[in-house]
Amino acid sequence: xxxxxSLLSSLVLLSCCLxxxxxxxxxxxxxxxxxxxxxxxxxxxxxxxxxxxxxxxxIDDTLKSSGGVQVAGVNLGGIDxxxxxxxxxxxxxxxxxxxxxxxxxxNQRHYDDNFYDKDSAFSLQxxxxxxxxxxxxxxxxxxxxxxxDGSKLAKALRRTGELSDVNPTKEWGIGPVLxxxxxxxxxxxxxxxxxxxxxxxxxxxxxxxxxxxYVYVGDTGELDQEAGETMLREYPExxxxxxxxxxxSDPPSSYPPSGIPIPSPKLxxxxxxxxxxxxxxxxxxxxxxxxxEDDGLMRVVEEAERxxxxxxxxKESSKWIDIERDIEMAYRxxxxxxx
Length: 339
What we know:
Low-confidence stretches: 1-44
Shape: globular
């Protein structure tokens, strides 16, 4: 079994006024990750009522744009040309944080409603699981392509958790990274299968889904749909949903006035497969599915708008057109929730 570095550090923490005990997930080459019991003793309330969510993400054209760069006619990571190569998509880190945070909030709310006792020595503290990465980047080139703790990507994720108004933590960020190989760069059709196989390796940490369930976030450019649909068909009991970022190799000048059409969501084995253009739209769909708090949706909206404003993106840009279309969907979603 592969090594999962800091796989789920500080996942579940039960605090006592007399002593503190932490339950952390990790794994070695020879041992599967230990799983804490969810059964409560007569004196201790249950640690976990609802499974936590680990976001599983692709990188290129999902977290950041590939820029549509090609080498010898082969796409170097993806096809998106709307954003410059290396640009992070507006709201992406906030979206993944809110997905990770939601079950923590629900568990805390359940604990407070059913077990909280001001005179008790116990209190419940949960930390959202780190983001797992499935990437087509070749492991043979890991020396050059490895995602390190000091990378811009890792820092941006970590900062999102640290600066959160809700349950801030320094422990959230990049978790296990599972790479592809050179063979998938040569034979592109293998990328979807490789990502699915890596996902199967990932869920060995908790095959029952009692502690962890998953949301996969990919894009429409590199067979992530094939990988995501296979996850939903084979593991509907642990995969809550799949979100696919709709990207295009066409220049923005060729887009229709209302933006690129987005396919409608669909069910695969009873689980949702969602297509989205911006992370505001993804957050609206997640809220509709009960995977995100209403307040979380608004924080994604605010972060996406802030990103475009600070980047000096002109209001007539296709980026703003896409975001504003999805902001309208976000507000419609909140209106339904409040009605």
